[in-house]
Amino acid sequence: MAAQTTYPPVQSGLSCILTRHQPALFTSNNAQELPSLMGFFTLTESSGVNVREISEDGMVLQFDLTGVEPCIANSIRRSLLCDVPSMAAETVLMYQNTSVFTDDHIGSRLGLIPFRADPRKFKFRLPRATVEHPESTLIFDLSIPATKTSSALRNARKDAKPPNVNVYSSHLKLIPHPAMKPDDEKRNVRPISENILIATLLPQQELLLKLHVVKGVGKDHAKFSPVSTAMFRPKPELRLLRNVYDEEARRLQSLTPKDLIALERDTAGQEKAVIRDSRLYTGSRGVLKDPTLSDCMQIAFRENEFEFTVESVGALQSAVLVCQAIEILKKRCEFLSLICPKEPNWNNIKAEETTDYKF
Where does the DNA-directed RNA polymerase RpoA/D/Rpb3-type domain lie (predicted)? Predict the structure, then answer.
């Protein structure tokens, strides 16, 4: 009969708390996995989303957001960074560490490892919980025993470099909870990459620890942020105010970002500069500083039109994360509409009487 795996008690070992954890007030447990984001925007008739590019694995998403104020666009970005939950290491139980790295240093490196887990299938861990529940916590084991130095190496020269042992994220092994079913998806949780270096051990050094992975949000700690890049900028719009040919066209092409200016031959056989794609503009002002080309190009930005770029850490696709962020904003708006009066009575608000003070 195989021995049953049991969880180690929380009190044993050295407990290294990585960050304070609190459950989020607004969560999105029922966000829809939609390839398109058009259905989430009903602010005005002119508002909408145009998905421009999605990577093959769905982790990088680029889309245009039109017809909204900059504060709305920034709210989506902030919600992606701070409110959408993800899974990360919260507690490290250190049993043995004879390496040159301190316990806090290894704990901090473990906390920044992203895990391939769907946070919607987990619950937030209760504050000061003494029992780790499988619906809120996953426990990983990292056991690197001490390696013995061979006799050939002991007889070698004193300046011979002993072999080192690199500890990677692939050494983290999940300890299944007895309540987990054999076909439970939680058994497949693992780090995003298996080649994340955690530490380097010399011979006769060992590292034994347990890792508690929980659900959290980025406003508690940056390690819970599900995106590595979430940015937006106003949509640029470039125009050529006059025709630019031959030598000036080639110089204009050299002063602008790559592939922004294209050279085409007109009916007279001259090379004419044309704008290929205004999206490739990166903010370069070299053209405006040139004395002969400063009057040939106009650089402007469209009002209330933004270009978004979202790159997921790897647990969920970027489109799913954006949908969750918008759902959280919608729930917050519904919450504010309930607690705020629709038609405030300003007549009941009286201005305070002003008094002249002598100093």
Answer: 60-339
